[in-house]
Amino acid sequence: MTAWQTAVNAAQHYEVPQPICTSVTHTAYTGIWAGYVAPRANYSDAAFTWSESQWVQPSVPANSNYTNWQDAPTASFWDGIGVTSLIQAGVDSISMNTPQYRYWTEDYPNGSIYEGPAISPGQSAYVYLQYQGNQTTYYYLENVTTGHYQTFTNASPYVGSNAANFINERLGGHGLPKFGTANVSQSYFGAAQTTHQLVSTKSTKYVMTSNCTSTGTVLSSPSSMDSYGNFTQTWKNSSPYSDAC
């Protein structure tokens, strides 16, 4: 949690929330996720309670075919904890007639809530979340470039703790925008006061493909991780894709 403490001290302006290079353990293939996942089983089966990560928010092109953000191609970047139940937060890059960039929080399978400071492509996004018990989660969302941040304590009826996730997601029913990269850093997680840095030797590499297998078209894939847990997330194709696999 050192990075979170540094971020809080360095941030300049609190904003009131507005409503609204080693081998990995193994590689998994999915239709909607790409990135790295650290399973709880690789950390003495400790229940994870927090995660944090930072990335440079990628730019997406304007797409005149979409005037509604709910339908538009979206590249979502996030970190979180859990597997079938997920406590997570991140930023969407939405490729519509005027591209939009929005922070969000989510307690999956509940839907996401768009909330957090303003962010633009090329700026650094930082996300920290901590499950506090009693079905509540604390979120700290910062635009590191501007120093603006917002904090939230939201209900978390669906508690996830079985993995720490650092992900580029293709939202179900949406293609990815054409085409982009994001540099991911400061990826840490832990249980209570225990801190772990993301490392490749205890993580599963997730590759997003058109048919959820190694034979499909690669849609998004992370690079190898350096010794500090940094990697580059690149999405390479917007189609074909399947929501059924």
Mean of the pLDDT scores?
A: 91
Can you name the CATH architecture? Sandwich
Overall SS class: mainly beta
The helix/strand series, from N terminus to C terminus, equals HEEEEEEEEEEEEEEEEE
Unreliable residue runs: 12-23
Overall 3D shape: globular
Gap from first CA to last CA:
36 Å
Number of E strands: 17
- Main sheet? 17 strands, mixed
Rg from Cα = 17 Å
Strand content: over 45%
Query: Which homologous superfamily in CATH is the superfamily?
Result: Peptidase G1
CATH class: Mainly Beta
* Total domain count: 1
| CATH topology value | Jelly Rolls
Explain this structure to me?
This protein has 245 residues and is mainly β. The protein has a single domain (2-235), classed as Sandwich (Jelly Rolls), CATH 2.60.120.700. It is 4% helix and 47% strand. The chain contains one helix and 17 strands. It has one helix at 2-10, and strands spanning 13-14, 26-30, 33-39, 50-56, 74-82, 86-94, 100-108, 112-114, 124-133, 136-143, 148-155, 163-170, 180-190, 196-197, 204-209, 218-222, 231-235. The chain has a 17-stranded mixed beta sheet that branches. A hairpin with a 2-residue loop joins strand 9 and strand 10. It is globular, with a radius of gyration of 17 Å. It starts with a helix and ends in a 10-residue tail after the last strand. The relative contact order is 0.27. Mean pLDDT is 91; it is low at 12-23.
